[in-house]
Design goal:
The protein is elongated, with a radius of gyration of 51 Å. With about 350 residues, the chain is α+β, with helices and mostly antiparallel strands. The chain has a domain at about 120-190 and about 255-355. The longest helix has about 60 residues, at about 50-115. The strands form 5 sheets. Strands 1-2-3-16-15-17-13-14 form an 8-stranded antiparallel sheet, covered by helices on one side. A 5-stranded antiparallel sheet has the order 4-20-5-18-19, covered by helices on one side. Strands 11-10-12 form a 3-stranded antiparallel sheet, with no helix packed on it. The protein has helices at about 5-30, 50-115, 170-175, 235-240, 265-270, 305-315, and strands spanning about 120-125, 125-135, 140-150, 155-160, 180-185, 185-190, 195, 200, 205, 220-225, 230, 245-250, 255, 260, 275-280, 285-290, 320-325, 330-335, 335, 350-355. The relative contact order is 0.14.
């Protein structure tokens, strides 16, 4: 069925008629609509109550404060305990160190007592040097006991710092401002110059190359660990293994591992007695130097090599080596010549051991 325009208008009018009538009635009746007060939120600028969340937060903050105070107290106690423990550990370390050094101190007192009472001494971070007087039946002399604490506490120098040069121990000590000095190895004169005998090492270098041991010669010196090394070396590699820092040569070896060595026949009577210079060591690596006075080199005064061995044994030395003696024997301490040179004055020599404060 087909509807025309008029029919559609009638249908719309019939549909909307009730709604239009209601609107007309409301307008005519002057009816007003209003919502209840509860439908609108109240506005206020005052806080009438603390929310429950704020109360919980304040409680948590108070708990945090108490926890922080407790933690601070615990930290303070821990710090105090740390300091107390650290102090106790320091005491324990010091005590342990003293106990560890005790055997060394006992040993040092024993070997010192065997020599006597020091007449003079020098002590520093580099060295402890003690000078003793020796009075024997047939001679007088001096002992210098040295404990090296630093690589710079001792060195060997050439006369006037050149190969072929020579100077007295006193001159070398003054030039280097050393506290003590002792003559070192033997020498040979050639063309007006004085050269060290056989193998000689300076600053770890061989001055004139290595010379294998012949006859009764030996090499003696200090290695890089400040230990006395010495003996007869037939091959350079043998000596290289000892890591020599400096050293010189002479004759003969007097003692090895506490055992006196056989003195070659030639050196028993050539000369019989003489001024002597000897270097030795102890088991704790301290060094011992002996310088014996004599009136001349004729064999009538001074000490025999056998007597030097007796002294070394009496003083508790381990290894001992005879250095150049006679008029070469020299001992300087604190800028003064201690011994009495047989020449009447110190002899210029090509090598000297010097000690530094």
């Amino acid at each position: 069925m087909t509807l025309n325009v008029k029919q559609l208008n009638r249908l719309a009018l019939l549909t909307l008629a009730p709604f239009l009538g209601l609107v007309i009635w409301l307008a005519a009746a002057n009816v007003s609509l209003s919502l209840p007060e509860e439908a609108f939120p109240k506005q206020t600028t005052e806080i009438t109550a603390i929310p429950a969340q704020t109360s919980v937060l304040l409680k948590q903050l108070d708990q945090a404060k108490q926890s922080a105070l407790h933690t601070a107290s615990a930290i303070k106690k821990t710090v105090s305990l740390y300091h107390a423990t650290n102090q106790s550990m320091s005491v324990l370390v010091k005590t342990a160190s003293m106990q560890a050094d005790r055997p060394g101190a006992i040993y040092d007192r024993r070997i010192t007592r065997a020599i006597g009472s020091p007449a003079r001494s020098v002590q520093s971070d580099k060295i402890t040097a003690q000078l003793f007087n020796i009075h024997a039946q047939n001679f007088n002399g001096y002992a210098l006991k040295v404990k090296l604490k630093s690589d710079s506490g001792m060195k060997m120098v050439l006369g006037k710092d050149k190969l072929g040069g020579a100077e007295t121990t006193l001159a070398a000590a003054k030039r280097y401002q050393a506290i003590a000095g002792i003559n070192a190895g033997g020498f040979a004169d050639q063309d007006g110059k004085r050269y060290p005998l056989s193998t000689t090492v300076m600053e770890g270098q061989y001055l004139s190359g290595f010379e294998p041991t012949y006859k009764d010669l030996f090499f003696v010196g200090l290695n890089k660990d400040r230990k006395l090394i010495g003996g007869k070396f037939n091959d350079k590699s043998q000596l290289d293994k000892q890591s020599p820092k400096f050293g010189a040569s002479f004759v003969p070896v007097l003692m090895k591992n506490g055992v006196p060595q056989t003195i070659p026949t030639k050196w028993q009577s050539s000369p019989t007695r003489a001024p002597r210079t000897v270097v030795a060591n102890y088991k704790d690596n301290q060094l011992l130097f002996l310088v014996i006075d004599g009136h001349n080199e004729s064999g009538s005064s001074g000490a025999t090599l056998k007597e030097m061995q007796i002294l070394l044994s009496r003083f508790g030395a381990i290894d001992g080596y005879n250095l150049d003696g006679g008029g070469s024997s020299s001992l300087v301490f604190n800028g003064q010549v201690v011994n009495h040179p047989s020449d009447g004055a110190l002899r210029p020599v090509p090598t000297n051991f010097l000690f530094f404060e």
